[in-house]
Amino acid sequence: MHVRFALGALGIALLCAAPLGAAELRLTDDSGHEVVLPRAAERIVSLAPHLTEVLFAAGAGDKVVGVVNYSDYPEAATRLPQVGSFNNVDLEAVARLRPDLVLAWSSGNRAVNLDKLRALGIPLFISEVRKLDDVAHSLETVGRLAGTEDTAKAAADAFRARRDALAARYRARPPVRMFYQIWDRPLMTINGEHLISDAIRLCGGENVFAGLPQLAPTIGVEAVLAANPEAVVASGMGEARPDWLDQWKNWSGLSAAQAGNLYFIPPQLIQRHTPRLLDGAEQLCGFLEQARAKRTAAPR
Questions:
Q1: 84 forms bridges with which residues in the sheet?
Q2: Predicted local confidence at residue 108, as pLDDT
Q3: Does the structure show a pLDDT above 60 at 299?
Q4: Fold exhibited by the domain 174-297
Q5: Pairing assessment for the beta strands 231-234 and 205-207 based on DSSP bridges
Q6: What are 74-103's pLDDT values in tens digits?
Q7: Alpha carbon of 261 to those of 192, 228, 238, 295: distances in Å?
Q8: S-S: 280 plus which of 199, 230, 242, 270, CB 3.0-4.6 Å?
């Protein structure tokens, strides 16, 4: 009841505050819903760490009034009020911040929370990034929503230029069959529809589990051994290389273990849908190039 009252009052306040002649915004989000704002948003709540980072990259950092935990980049985001976690949003905390826009993540935020926010009348824009070009598009979209189009366009153009340079250098290189490991227990990977698979393709890699139906499937060790990738790339949860990555050395018949192609990329560089993903992609391309070099160096 408190949330419903607060958000109802918020809606009235927003209508009253809209200046005469303000340009109405109408955009369709990635879930197919039309989002209508009376003007560019001034108070934005982000429901995912990567969306927080995109807001700052698009020049809208000063309009962010609330974030979820693990919103740790840029450093300014760590000083903002938190509204729970991406999968457990505190609706009352959101209401207290009086946002005129909430940015959400369809693959990470719980649908029940998004439904409640939408039902309570708060403007909600849902984002879902599956390709590298979607990162640039999300920057431009956030720029429109926040009224920071020039900064957002510059960031999007820089992202596309860097992506194209990496593609020109690596995409046509001899393919490297690889396994991308998200976690150890349970053993998790990605399919071909995942954004990271687009980065793999950018580097001339082949995801050995691209054909699985789930976006982030759980698999068994036996499946990895059967696929016999030439390289294993892992992320984990922090900046340190996870101990479990080197456990693949116990499987002497695994090509990646035989060649010493067991690589680590910090998850914040490869698993967040932000401009920094190209930092992770550049590391990935370098690792796959190392794997190629080992082919030519191997004794015949």
A1: 89
A2: 84
A3: no
A4: Rossmann fold (3.40.50)
A5: unpaired
A6: 999 999 999 999 888 999 999 999 999 999
A7: 21, 12, 20, 11
A8: 270
Residue 171 per-residue DSSP state: T
Bridge partner list, 104: 126
Helical residues (DSSP H) of the chain, grouped into ranges: 2-17, 49-57, 91-96, 111-119, 132-146, 149-170, 195-202, 221-227, 255-259, 267-270, 277-297
Q: How far is CA 194 from CA 11, 116, 131, 162, 258, in A?
A: 36, 27, 8, 20, 28
Q: Where are the domains of the chain?
A: 2-156, 174-297
In this predicted structure, what is the pLDDT of residue 297? 64
Tokens representing 142?
């956030």
User: Distance between CA atoms of 136 and 194, rounded to whole angstroms?
Assistant: 16
Give the chain's end-to-end CA distance (angstroms, integer). 74
Q: Can you tell me the mean pLDDT for 195-211?
A: 97
Q: Can you read off the two tokens belonging to residue 267?
A: 């998850």
Give the pairing type, strands 64-66 and 205-207. Answer: unpaired
Rounded to 5 degrees, φ, ψ at 234 are: -125, 160
* Dihedral sign of CA atoms 186, 189, 195, 199 in order: positive
pLDDT at site 290: 97
Q: Say if CB 60 and CB 146 are below 8 A apart.
A: yes
Place of tokens 């938190």: 82
pLDDT per residue as tens digits for the range 146-178? 999 999 999 999 999 999 999 999 999 999 999
With b for 16 or more beta-carbon neighbours within 10 A and e for fewer, the 260-290 pattern comes to ebbbbbbbbbbbbbbbbbbbbbbbbbebbbe
Whole-structure pTM value: 0.88
Nearest-angstrom CA–CA distance, 163 and 168 = 9
| Superfamily holding 2-156 | Nitrogenase molybdenum iron protein domain (3.40.50.1980)
- Predicted confidence at residue 238, as pLDDT, reads 79
